[in-house]
Each structure stands twice: as C-alpha cells, then as structure tokens.
C-alpha cells in the first residue's frame, strides 16, 4: 500500500496563482496510523512530494454549498443527472456553470449533494491534471471534521480568522470567530447540542468568550492534522464525480459494453414517462415549501422584491447589515429574544423582522398570563425594551406582536 499525501488548498486564490499559493501538506502511512510534521509551502513544493503517493486534497468548505435532494431512483448516476434540475430554483447561478457531487443514500431516500462552481473545480484540479497526477479524493474541509452519529454533537475547528463547523452528517458552515455564538444560536436556540471544539495550540483565541456548552479537544498544532485524522470518506462527499471522475482508460472499457449501453438507453427512454410524472409530483411539493420559505423571507426583508436563492440572499442581507453597522443591533436583539422565549414557557416564534433599528416579533402564546410573564421578564433586565403592540386572544391561544429596541 502506498503512503498518502494530504494537501489543504486555500480560499480566494485566482486560478492562475494557485500553483504558487501557500498550502499545508503532510505525509501519512498507508494505514493512516500517523501523520508526519505538517509542512507549509507552495502547492508546487507540495506536488514535488506526490510521486508514488495517494493524493487526498481538502478544499475550502466555504466555497461548497451542501444540500440534499430526493429523487425517485436508486441508481446514483440517475440521481446525479436529476439533481441539478431539482435544485435549479434554489440556486442563483446558472446550473450549467455548477458542478454537482452526491453523497451516500440516506435512510429516508434522500441524497446529500455538494454544489460548487465549475470554474473552481477546474482551478483546483488543473495543477494535478497538468502534471499527470491522479487525485484519490477532493473533499470539502467541513466534512472532514468528526461527527458523532449517536450523540449528535456538533464539531468545530477554531482558526485565527475563521471557524469551521459541522452541524450534521452532511452539513456545516464557516464564520468569523466573533460571530460563532450568534450562528450557533440561530441553528440551536435552546443550546441543546454540545459543541466539540478542536483547538489549535497556535490560534491564540479566548474560548471563554464562546457562550455555549463546550467540550475542548486540544492537542493539535495545524488544521491539516484535524482534517487528516478525522476524515471518513464514507461520511463525506468526494467532489471527483462526473467529468472530474478519475477513472482511467475509459475508451478501453467502452467498446465491449457499447451494445449494453444502447439497450440501457432504450430502457431509460421507456421509463422516462413514469420518471417524469414522479419528478413533477415531487416538484409540486417542493414548490409549495419554497413558497412558504419565500413568504417568511419577504416578511423579514420586505424591500427584497426579486428572490432567486434564499440562502445566498439571506447571506447578502446579513453582510449588508454588517457593512452598514446595523449588525451590532440585530444580533443582540435576536439573542435577547431567544433567551426570553427559553425563559418563558408557552411562547412560539412565528415571524421576525428587523427594520429601523428595532426587532418586530410575531409569536403565539398559550394564554395571556404568558404575555404578562414576558413583560415582567423584560422589566427585570435592561438588554432591550419590550413594547407589546397587540395581544389577541382566540380559541387556539393568543396572537402576540411585540417590538424590541436596544436600551
């Protein structure tokens, strides 16, 4: 068995400058029983050590969107063909400019999907292809963090400039260290999941500032150590699929199977009608859910009239808030509201809207006593001022609308 050369590629590097960009790289024995000292140098220097070794490359998870699809087909190839069209309405970019890769089929019949710009895939693979090097795997670093399926704990790696978080088997996110607590609260307002924090000895971060149940896992010096040690390819998505598959000598194997391929095309054509009906039915269900999501987004951001991709546009709105200096108001108010709901049983959030420096919240209360307890809770602390704008009692509870403003 051959040794493994691990390489971590950086983010935000122009394609023609990648070969000279700084990377982390290290060699491990074939059984992955240990890792040599992590080295730092250009990608060119790392590739000089590639001869005779298996190549596993980690790419920036911030550049890869993780989602999922459910397609009425069991063959991975058919699912991969249908995935772009299933996701087309969720993506701001033209699907012809994107690359799609599948993860393993899940118990509920869905498939995890990784979506990345085709331009990035070409840039990431070009240095290896031009030197005749065969990649074994190209994996988003988000999916190289540990995941505990039994306990469901989230995992995070804190670097000096960013935090990489894995919050599900095939899901995660990147954020700035100062924003970590706010991102965690948005994903888990009840703080029900502990966070395993893999710490770097040279990061120089104050972890006591993270207001979250933490389990610190020290003993690492460089991020590549974390990714190489915890990577489980069966629990990740290899981006080397479709045209980037590393299959060799395809033409040599094609001729004997040409007749079988023709028969397969006929079979696919015969099943296309049934498959099309099932796809249409699923599309109708997805459309209904999309409409509900669109309504919630428009309630939060009424000035955003043209909606293409909720996730992308929500990120843009958050960045706009940050650029305008308003994020110092929205995140503290969101945190106070989350604490208030947790401290007062019988409340359920229905809608949030931030405008003119205030947070407007629509929610449902089990009875009017809950509303009074909410008033008393805000009166006892000074993080924000509560104004109950309406409280309409009905047979199914009390519809409440409040306004929160900074003190």
UniProtKB/TrEMBL annotation:
GO terms for cellular component: Gram-negative-bacterium-type cell wall; plasma membrane; type II protein secretion system complex. This is Type II secretion system protein L. The keyword Transport applies. Its main location: membrane. The keyword rRNA-binding does not apply. GO terms for biological process: protein secretion by the type II secretion system. It is found in: Cell inner membrane. It is a single-pass membrane protein. SUPFAM superfamilies: Actin-like ATPase domain. It comes from Hydrocarboniphaga effusa AP103. Belongs to the GSP L family. Inner membrane component of the type II secretion system required for the energy-dependent secretion of extracellular factors such as proteases and toxins from the periplasm. InterPro entries: ATPase_NBD, GspL_cyto_dom, GspL_pp_dom, T2SS_protein-GspL. The lineage of its organism: Bacteria, Pseudomonadati, Pseudomonadota, Gammaproteobacteria, Nevskiales. Residues 43-246 form the GspL cytoplasmic actin-ATPase-like domain. Residues 252-405 form the GspL periplasmic domain. Keywords: Cell inner membrane, Cell membrane, Membrane, Protein transport, Transmembrane, Transmembrane helix, Transport.
């Amino acid at each position: 068995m051959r040794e493994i050369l691990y390489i971590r590629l950086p983010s935000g590097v122009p394609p023609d400058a990648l070969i000279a960009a700084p990377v982390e790289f290290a060699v491990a024995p074939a059984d992955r029983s240990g890792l040599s000292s992590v080295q730092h140098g250009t990608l060119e220097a790392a590739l000089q050590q590639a001869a005779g070794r298996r190549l596993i490359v980690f790419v920036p998870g911030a550049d890869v969107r993780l989602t999922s699809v459910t397609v009425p087909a069991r063959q991975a190839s058919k699912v991969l063909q249908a995935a772009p069209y299933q996701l087309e309405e969720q993506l701001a970019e033209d699907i012809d400019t994107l690359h799609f890769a599948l993860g393993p089929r899940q118990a509920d019949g869905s498939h995890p999907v990784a979506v990345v710009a085709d331009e990035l895939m070409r840039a990431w693979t070009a240095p290896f292809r031009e030197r005749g090097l065969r990649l074994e795997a190209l994996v988003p670093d988000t999916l190289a963090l540990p995941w505990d399926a039994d306990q469901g704990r989230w995992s995070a790696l804190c670097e000096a400039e960013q935090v990489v978080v894995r919050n599900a088997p095939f899901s995660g996110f990147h954020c700035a260290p100062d924003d970590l607590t706010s991102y965690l609260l948005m994903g888990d307002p009840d703080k029900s999941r502990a966070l395993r924090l893999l710490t770097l000895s040279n990061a120089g971060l104050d972890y006591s500032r993270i207001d979250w149940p933490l389990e610190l896992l020290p003993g690492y010096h460089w991020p590549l150590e974390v990714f190489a040690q915890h990577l489980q390819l069966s629990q990740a998505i290899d981006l080397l699929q479709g045209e980037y598959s590393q299959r060799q000598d395809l033409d040599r194997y094609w001729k004997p199977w040409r007749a079988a391929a023709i028969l397969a095309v006929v079979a696919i054509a015969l099943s296309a009608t049934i498959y099309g009906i099932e796809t249409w039915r699923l599309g109708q269900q997805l459309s209904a859910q999309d409409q509900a999501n669109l309504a919630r987004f428009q309630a939060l951001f009424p000035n955003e009239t043209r909606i293409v991709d909720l996730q992308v546009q929500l990120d843009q709105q958050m960045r706009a808030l940050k650029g305008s200096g308003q994020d110092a108001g929205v995140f503290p108010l969101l945190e106070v509201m989350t604490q208030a709901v947790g401290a007062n049983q019988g409340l359920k959030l229905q809608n949030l809207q931030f405008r003119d420096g205030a947070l407007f919240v629509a929610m449902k209360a089990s009875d009017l006593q809950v509303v009074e307890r909410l008033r008393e809770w805000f009166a006892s602390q000074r993080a924000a001022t509560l104004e109950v704008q309406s409280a309409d009692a009905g047979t199914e509870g009390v519809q409440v609308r409040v306004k929160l403003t900074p003190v």
